[in-house]
Specification:
By secondary structure, the chain is mostly helical. The protein is about 75% helix and about 0% strand. It contains nine helices and no strands. α1 crosses α4, α1 crosses α6 and α4 runs parallel beside α7.
């Protein structure tokens, strides 16, 4: 019996191996258990099903990409860093392309609940990729950035799946174009949110000033002497 900490990775590898051999839709947890040399009880103790294994695989790739970052990369412009990080992600996924084609063809074979979890996992991954590239991901602007990158990554991923070049040059060129377009949009959003924030501050200041003046008028008014 392998060490408990190794079982999740063993299950992930078994699942992806089977996905490369046949339709992901036809892969069952029994198949995965047998391929991994484990019992169904072992599978149950370490994962919640096929969808859970895919989410764990995404986190595994996240960790590999982040672990390989060089501190010197942080000195590069954000656009270049983001391209490097995303391309490093594709490099980490390269050996799994046959399995990923099968999974994409079956749309992950996910039910509604697992689909929502998968979307959340991809948003989380893209947030980390942006963080690793030096972009702010907090607040409304940050959330819009994560959403935008998730959409760009999904389109670029499709391009990468069919990229037969040795260096994924066409994929990188496509990613560069998409991110350049997004940079213009991001700049406009930043300006728009900046103007909105100034307007909100001005309205807030006016409300406070009006409230203060109203309070002062009430205090200065002398009540009539009703005893006369």
């Amino acid at each position: 019996m392998p060490a408990k900490k190794d079982i999740p990775n063993i299950l992930i590898d078994a699942a992806l191996k089977l996905a490369a051999e046949k339709s992901w839709h036809d892969v069952t947890m029994i198949d995965i258990a047998r391929s991994a040399g484990l019992s169904l009880a072992d599978c149950h103790a370490h994962c919640n099903g096929k969808g859970d294994l895919l989410r764990r695989f995404i986190r595994k790739i996240d960790h590999e990409v982040l672990a390989d970052l060089d501190a010197d990369d942080f000195n590069e412009p954000g656009h270049d860093r983001l391209i490097a990080v995303i391309m490093a992600r594709f490099d980490a996924l390269a050996d799994y392309r046959p399995a990923l084609r099968s999974i994409i063809a079956a749309r992950g074979d996910l039910g509604p609940a697992d689909s929502i979890r998968a979307i959340k996992s991809h948003f989380g991954s893209m947030r980390w990729m942006l963080d690793a590239s030096g972009f702010r991901t907090s607040g409304l602007h940050g959330s819009l950035r994560v959403t935008g990158l998730t959409a760009i990554y999904a389109r670029t991923f499709r391009q990468w799946l069919d990229d037969d070049s040795t260096d994924f040059g066409p994929t990188m060129a496509y990613l560069d174009r998409e991110l350049s377009r997004a940079a213009d949009w991001d700049g406009q959003v930043e300006k728009g949110l900046g103007k909105a924030a100034k307007l909100c501050r001005k309205l807030s200041e006016n409300c406070r000033r009006f409230s203060s003046e109203k309070s002062s008028d009430t205090t200065d008014t002398t009540a009539p002497d009703l005893r006369q």
